[in-house]
Amino acid sequence: MKKSTIIFMPLLVLALTLGAIGCGGEAPETLVSGVFTVRAREYYSIEFNSGMAEVSGSFTSTESGGYGNDIEVFLCTYRQFVDWRDGAAGVSGLYWSGRVRSASFTVDLPEGANTYYLVYNNRFSLFTHKVVTSHVQLTGN
Fold first, then answer.
1. Phi, psi of 52 (to 5 degrees)
2. 33: helix, coil or strand?
3. How many CA atoms lie within 13 A of 63 on its CB side?
4. How far is the C-alpha of 87 from the C-alpha of 128, rounded, in Å?
5. What pLDDT is stored for residue 4 in this prediction?
6. How high is the mean pLDDT of the chain?
């Protein structure tokens, strides 16, 4: 066997091994992917636990009869979610879209394990249900 082949073989094995274990990067976890309805005066939330990671995704809202197709989407900690749900004024989150029809976002979660909520809010709409198409994933948990 040539000297160059002897050096190349261990490097090839190392490269294949690192590729098989992901070389430190983890596959994204899907938090939501699909189409769902958020009824008027209600919200839809997804609870998840994570350490330091990135949440990224997009959403589009259309009306389901009635007027207006905007929705609020936000990402927050457990404490922020409870405060918002219970009607506290001035609650902020890690991401807040405002009332929009569509948006894309990327949010870096802080270090340390925590419980988070991804919320699709339609509580402000008195009559109009919203049909939401969304794909959001968690990377690096």
1. -65, 120
2. strand
3. 10
4. 21
5. 42
6. 83
Q: Which amino acid is at 12?
A: L
**Residues in CB range of 112: below 8 A, 6 or more apart:** 51, 52
Mean pLDDT within 73-99:
94
CB 29 within 8 A of CB 109: no
Strand order in the sheet with 43-50: 43-50, 114-121, 72-77, 95-96
Domain covering 26-139 assigned CATH 2.60.120.680 in the classification: yes
Nearest alpha carbon to residue 75 among 34, 122, 50, 107: 107
Question: Average pLDDT, stretch 50-76?
Answer: 89
d(CA 74, CA 94): 7
pTM: 0.79
Q: Where are the domains of the chain?
A: 26-139
CA nearest to 50, candidates 1, 134, 118, 115: 115
Query: Bridge partners of 105?
Result: 57
